[in-house]
Amino acid sequence: MIKQLVALVTLASAATFSIATEASLDKAAKEDIARHRAMASAHEAAAKCLESGKSDEVCEKELMLSCKGLAIGKFCGMKHEH
User: How far is Cα 10 from Cα 29, in angstroms, rounded to an integer?
Assistant: First the structure.
């Protein structure tokens, strides 16, 4: 019972802090957050593409299309080693 109460209080505190923080963000910050979420979504789609067995070339083309105008560079703002 005590663990549940602690979890509930923690969750309520986090939700309150989250709401207060989001309200204080300016328009530019909100737009930047939206771009990061869009890039993350595009990268998740690229990962799923690779998991499906498609080639790197096909998945990179799809990534470039989904990130057009969103991020800098061929890899949607991210690059890593293979």
Answer: 26
Amino acid found at 16: T
**Is residue 56 within 8 Å of residue 20, measured between CB atoms?**
no
Q: How many CA atoms lie within 13 A of 70 on its CB side?
A: 22
Asked whether the predicted pLDDT for residue 7 surpasses 80, the reply is: no
Neighbours of 52 (CB within 10 A): 9
User: In terms of C-beta density within 10 A (0-12 exposed, 13-18 middle, 19 or more buried), how is residue 67 classed?
Assistant: buried
Distance from CA of residue 16 to its chain's centroid? Answer: 22
Q: Which amino acid is it at 30?
A: K
Record the pTM: 0.62
Cα angle: 52, vertex 55, 61; to 5 degrees: 105
